[in-house]
Amino acid sequence: MSITVRNVTKWYGQQKALDNVSFTVEEGHVTGFLGPNGAGKSTMMKIITGFLPPSAGEVRVNGLEVRAHLLEVRKMIGYLPEHNPLYPEMYVREYLHYVAGIYRLGRRSRKRVEEIIELTGLGPEQHKQIGSLSKGYRQRVGLAQALIHDPQVLILDEPTSGLDPNQIVEIRELIKKLGREKTILLSTHIMQEVEAICDRVIIIHRGRIIADESERSLVTLQKEQTHFTLQVEFSGSVPARLLEQLPKVLAVEEEGPGTFTLHCEEDLREEIFRLAVREGLTLRGLALAGRNLEDVFRELTSRTPYEA
Ligand code: ADP
Ligand code: MG
User: Fold this and answer.
1) Coil/strand/helix, residue 210
2) Which residue's CA is the closest to the ligand 1 atom numbered 10?
3) 295 in any annotated domain
């Protein structure tokens, strides 16, 4: 079951929160929707789930236009909103029965609530009031309500935000497990989150899509285009100018005595090795720095012209 977003623009009064956004989320993937705060992630998710109308453009879920088929689309989608609005005075089990009622699960409710409590690991907390739960368990309740009607598509808005490191690991594991069967779109402003759980990433910045690729090929693509970063470490102190005068060196950062980060147009490891031999220096380390999604993200967001 896929999601197709076509030329979606959203204005809040005078402010354009989404600017002609198009992308597709394919079935059977965990797709990361990555962007800094204010990029437009939550707005896009509210539009996909039909809680907000777009100012222009359209969204289709499994081929159905969202606004025209709101009820059908809601049945296919599970949504964990950003500020996961729960009822603090309700008990976990009572709340899940209430949500099952909204989806008219009828006699299937009882069994389904059991299954979902099991799946989301809510067992030990099921008889507690939501307001008394830890943030991690409240997030599980949010996931449970999103899953109760067994939707094929999950829209999760910053599902790990505000959780402690252990809770983050647990929720990520749960999402990965769900990703084996469902189509998931998950927003985050954390690069590592995408690296940890997504097999595809869409990057949004100031209301525009700036990259839409599988994470691996995005990184490869960037590697080909951009400069190389080397970590160089000599025994004892070495003047930076020795490195600066090498051809194809763009910049030298001195991290400490004899320790440098080099930005260059080519992989200069062999040149540096020869330089060390020539100058009688002892090399302790020489490595080509791996580029991660964070570097790519920084590069993409710093060079894209938005004002156009
Ligand atoms: P993200 O989820 O990526 O942090 P949002 O979609 O929440 O981004 O917000 C995108 C932009 O739209 C921001 O500049 C935000 O201030 C603005 N915005 C969001 N919701 C509203 C609203 N209800 N009214 C006016 N502006 C809004
Ligand atoms: Mg948001």
Assistant:
1) strand
2) 40
3) no
Point out which residues pair with 58 in neighbouring strands: 6
- 12 with 78, same domain: the answer is yes
The secondary structure element, H or E, covering residue 159 is none
11 plus 76 within the same structural domain: yes
Residues 12 and 144 in one domain: yes
pTM: 0.77
In a domain, 136, yes or no: yes
CATH number, position 144: 3.40.50.300
Helix runs in 148-253, H state only: 165-179, 191-197, 215-225, 241-244
* Domain range enclosing 118: 3-218
Interval 212-244: pLDDT, tens: 765 555 555 444 545 678 999 999 999 999 999
Q: Which residue's C-alpha comes closest to atom 27 of ligand 1? A: 12
Longest dimension (CA), the chain: 82
Question: Is residue 295 pLDDT above 80, yes or no?
Answer: no
Ligand 1: centre distance to CA 40 (Å): 6
- If asked whether residues 170 and 248 sit together in one domain, one would say no
Distance 52 CA to ligand 1 centre (A): 12
* Residue that finishes a domain, picked among 192, 218, 244: 218
How far, CA to CA in Å, does 24 sit from each of 78, 274, 285? 18, 49, 44
Pocket of ligand 1 (CB under 6 A): 12, 15, 17, 35, 37-43
Model pLDDT for residues 162-215, shown as the tens digit of each residue = 788 888 888 899 899 888 889 999 999 888 888 889 888 898 989 998 877 655
- Single out the residue of 7, 103, 6, 10 nearest to residue 63, CA to CA: 6
C-beta neighbour count of 167 within 10 angstroms: 17
Instruction: Using the mean position of ligand 1's atoms as its centre, give its distance from the Cα of residue 142 in Å.
Output: 22
In a domain, 111, yes or no: yes
**What span, in angstroms and rounded, lies between the C-alpha atoms of 193 and 112?**
30
Contact of 229 with 289, CB cutoff 8 Å: yes
195/3 Cα distance (integer angstroms): 22
